[in-house]
Design brief:
This protein is α+β, with helices and mostly antiparallel strands and about 230 residues long. About 60% of the residues lie in helices and about 15% in strands. It has helices at about 1-10, 20-40, 50-70, 75-85, 95-115, 115-140, 155-170, 200-210, and strands at about 145-155, 170-180, 185-195, 215-220. It has a four-stranded antiparallel β-sheet with strand order 2-3-1-4, with helices on one face. Strand 2 (about 170-180) and strand 3 form a beta hairpin.
């Protein structure tokens, strides 16, 4: 193998050592494993994919090799850009959060591939801690129990329903009126409601039933109340 590489070294082209590549590759994999572990810890919902975890880890390893190959050679960098421009990715990213983890894996792979081994590991650890902190605060924010509630009734019943909202919520905001009928005054009234406690939603539903409101829809929302 050395005799094949001799012409390259004599021509001034730097050839990375295999040991350097193996070490960089494993550092990239370790960093990406820490990043993917933070993804697993902070993921919520039903769309969790083990294949995505594997993809994050392997992406970092691939990027480390690319950075070693490019080195400080501008021609190789432009050649890589040309090669990557041919590739077309058809799979849409489900969440912007997934894209963040992909970029994190790329960053750790770039650090490992350029010899910043401790920085690659340190970045992964800091990324893990930051993800856990933001995940904790996001759960705290979701405990505000903000809901979007829509009812189909006439204007007189609506006024009584709003009295119930005052009683069982911290505050509420009228959002819209749709499907209004002038003949009987019926329409679909939509509110954003911040509940007092976990029992408040059941109490609002019970109050709506007592007011003979036939249609009540509830979805979870983000707060604009009081803003």
């Amino acid at each position: 193998m050395d005799e094949f590489l001799q012409p390259l070294s004599s021509s001034g082209i730097s050839v990375p050592d295999n040991i350097d590549f193996v070490f960089s590759f494993f550092i990239a994999l370790i960093s990406a494993t820490i990043i993917s572990y933070s993804y697993k810890l902070t993921h919520s919902g039903y769309s969790f994919s083990p294949n995505f975890i594997v993809s994050i880890i392997l992406t970092a390893g691939i990027i480390s090799l690319i950075m070693i190959i490019i080195g400080s050679n501008i021609a190789r960098a432009f050649a890589l850009v040309g090669a990557m421009s041919i590739v077309r990715f058809r799979n849409p990213v489900k969440e912007t959060r997934d894209l963040v983890y992909i970029f994190a894996a790329i960053a750790s792979g770039m650090a490992a591939g350029t010899g910043f081994f401790s920085m690659s590991i340190l970045f992964a650890v800091l990324f893990l801690l930051t993800s856990l902190i933001f995940n904790y605060f996001s759960h705290k924010l979701s405990e505000n129990m903000i809901y979007i509630i829509s009812v189909n009734c006439n204007n007189e019943i609506r006024k009584n329903f709003e009295e119930s909202l005052k009683k069982y919520s911290q505050k509420y905001l009228f959002l819209s009126l749709t499907s209004y009928k002038e003949d009987n005054g019926n329409g679909e009234y939509t509110y954003e409601v911040e509940l007092k406690n976990k029992k408040s939603l059941a109490e609002i539903k019970e109050s709506a039933a007592n007011l003979n409101i036939q249609s009540l829809k509830v979805i979870f929302g983000q707060s604009d109340v009081g803003s």
